[in-house]
Amino acid sequence: MVAPTCAPRIRSTFHIDITERGTVIAHLVPAQESPLAEMISSGKLHPATISGPAPRLSGPIKTEQEAGQVLRELRDNERY
Asked: Can you give the three-state secondary structure of 9-33, one letter per residue?
């Protein structure tokens, strides 16, 4: 818990150095938004407009190759 006298200074974006015998051991800075919230507020990211699980494809997926063969090829092309 932050002392009531410090909270207003921290909220107003002050950077406070915590020292021990003259040596800085910590920096007290205001909490920042999460990276997700920052991207939304800057317009780089738009939140989903629908809720719930992603829609599933209906019906079988037709391919020219067997799923096992496709998976083997994908694994063979992976880099380690």
From this structure: HHHCCCCEEEEECCEEEEEECCCCC
